[in-house]
Predict the structure.
Amino acid sequence: MQQGSIVNIHIARVKGTPSDPVQEANAISGMGLEGDRSCAKGNMRQVLLMDKETLDEFELKPGQIKENITTTGVDMSQTQPGQVFFIGDQITMEIVGECEPCGKMNALQPGLLDRINHRRGMLALVINGGSFKVGDSIRLEP
């Protein structure tokens, strides 16, 4: 089991604009994060998770690649679809797949699109919702 903590939370309210850093968020079962533009029933891209270690490796700041939850201590590139992770004691999310990098990556850094391929973070669905905040624990079940 991998275990870590949440170091940043971002809500992407409007497409094409920077994500807003927040100290806490509300995960809604079957929907995503309250206030986020991806919060919708049936959306397979409800929440994007990324680990700070990978961001640091690519000299990126939390939120810059539009992830919602930035973790430390959990290598998101090693997760697999179907794995469930827990935030605190009540929130559960299921990994549905990796987030393919888009052309916006090269706007951040020339060549980033190719370099960050298969390491841009993982998409997840909210199974059991609830409120969470920066500093909360996150653990991934094998």
Observations:
- The radius of gyration is 14 Å.
- The longest helix spans residues 52-57.
- The chain has one domain: 2-140.
- The chain has a mean pLDDT of 94.
